[in-house]
Design a protein that fits this description.
Elements (H helix, E strand, L loop, with lengths): L8 H4 L3 H16 L4 H5 L20 H8 L5 E6 L4 E8 L15 E5 L18 H7 L3 E5 L9 E2 L15 H20 L4 E6 L1 H12 L7 E7 L11 H19 L4 E2 L4 H10 L7 H12 L11 H4 L7 E2 H13 L10 H8 L16 E5 L8 H10 L3 E6 L9 H4 L3 H15 L2
Parallel strand pairs: 3-4, 3-6, 6-7, 7-10, 10-11
Antiparallel strand pairs: 1-2, 2-4, 2-5, 8-9
Helix pairs in contact: 2-8, 6-7, 8-12
Amino acid sequence: MTGFFYNRDMVLRTDRRILVCLFSVTLVLECHSFSLTEFLVGPRIGPRTQHATPKNIKLTMAQQLVNTNGYPFEEHEIYSEDGYILSLHRIPRSKYDKAPLKNQRPVALFQHGLLASSDVFLFRGPEYDLPYLLADAGYDVWLSNMRGNIYSMKHKAFDAEKDSEYWKFSLHEVGVYDLPAIIDYILKITKEHSLYFLGHSVGSTVAFIMGTMKPQYNAKIRLHLALAPLVHALHEISFPHKIFLGSSISLTQAIVSKNILNVFPRREYFSKLLGTLCANGVPTQFFCLIFLYSLVGIDGQQFNSSYIPEFLSYFPAGSSVYLTSHATQMYAEGDFRPLDYQNSFLNYQKYHQSSLPVYNLSLVDYPVTLHYGDGDTLVTAEDLAFTETKLPRIIGKFRVPYKHFNHMDFMIGTDAKDLVYKELISLMNKHR
């Protein structure tokens, strides 16, 4: 079994009593192996596993959302270098644009963050969601789905439901294999030479990984608009985050030992249960909001709680336990580096060298804008101030002009259109 550990001092100083309680919870989960862990986290990988994958979906939720709002929709499948089959969703033009599809438009590629998918940025509609606004502004919009989520669970050789090898990837592989293949495919289809890249959270992280590991692709990024990107985490970790990080090692090991490698996949029954517990007017909603705000930051004004049931039908959308561990490792340690599998053979197999490769941000020579919110407890102004010093072509660092704007508000903030999205489109227009 692969081990995990994080060495940031603040994690090690987590209150001992909290760790004892969390260890007890873990013990309960282990003892009740009837599948409480599977119910909460995800299914075991093996012959009897059955859960939704794209091959079982006749009409994707993303397509229904886009078409219902009157916009054209396309779905494309591409192959990464290491055999993963990825789903791209495309809104080629605005519903108001009657010009032929063959007319060239500037290309915008959007990459979602951790445990998300393309449709979490589509369900509120054209008045609120960034992809529609980009299409209305004249852009050819592509939305990528990371390997391992509900839309990108196919492989040339592996079955995601049965083969544990499928799930042995982290953010590193997304940046090194997937994103280059996606960019090449889009530019070939559109006959463009470069594109605009927009990433939320680890969606931007993978673009920085690509820029360091495959710098030949930097010329293909016209502008990278990084929304709360997780790169270097240097801020004082909040108390709830200390609790999470202090328990993540043992919980991850317990999950992997049960061969639960697809974590928090989209499951209709689970989404409906959470949606019921967290809906407006239900007493348990209070606990849902406390949990949510403890992770992403408190912001009662930008978060419309009536969205919760619908939001939970799209989020989470699944990922590999190793990818989530990579994000957790970067946050806990504060360093921008590949996942350490704590296994020299596996590390060598993954990185083709005895030591972990270095992500050298000085190699990322495409233009970048950094965007952050004061209410974000995951990615802070302090973090981005340090990241800014490492990137050679920073266009600007932009604070969202609202005091409590948090990490999730970039996705579903009530006023995100006026506070963030309009500025993004303005910056893109200036760099045409």
